[in-house]
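User: My collaborator sent over this chain with a note saying "see what the structure looks like." That's all I know about it. Can you take a look?
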Amino acid sequence: MNFNIGVLEANYPALLGGLMVTCLATAIALSIGFVVAVIMVAMRLGGGKWSRRFADAYLTFFRTTPEMVLIFWAYFCLPAVLGIQMSGLTAGSLSLGLVTGAYLAEIFRAGIQSVPKGQFEAGRALGLSRFALWTRVVLPQGVPLMTPPFINYLTELIKNTTLLAAIGVAELAYVAYNLGAQTFRYFEFITAIGIGYFLIIFPISLLSRRLEKTRRQAAM
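Assistant: Without extra context I'll predict from the sequence alone. Here is the result:
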């Protein structure tokens, strides 16, 4: 089968629009996930018994339930439960955001707990406020450890946005499938988005590896 690049040139505005939706869904899910992760970490590390149990249950549920099931439930069931209208983008991004929160919470927790307890005790002994303790002692040491796994998960989140095609969200994969059906040129469109995702995700993966390598060298 010959590769007709003219088909892509004629339809690139639609593909670009799909890419923008993919970026938007990723940004929304990441924002929701970040907020949820901070709350879950606070509940696990600084909350009472019931707070820790709730956080543990949340993390277990959202890390073990398939994303597709959550996306379908949010799109088809949640509007009926809440009595509201919800677009596919909203339902899908919310689902991915809740899952993202569960994974980021574990990344953040691991980074914070990697800081020796003596650092906390020394900061308190010096009379540092809670804010100063976290901003000057804990986060400067924990964030470098969190960054590589955070970036790795970002690549997974970008790939998971393709699941939103199942509920009609016009992200990149959905647009490519539809254009392929309209033109009977699946070869060009599917190949193009495969290359496109590679060009987006591979540099991010390289950045993660570089940061991890730099961190290990600094620790020596």
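A starting point for your reply to your collaborator: The mean pLDDT is 90.
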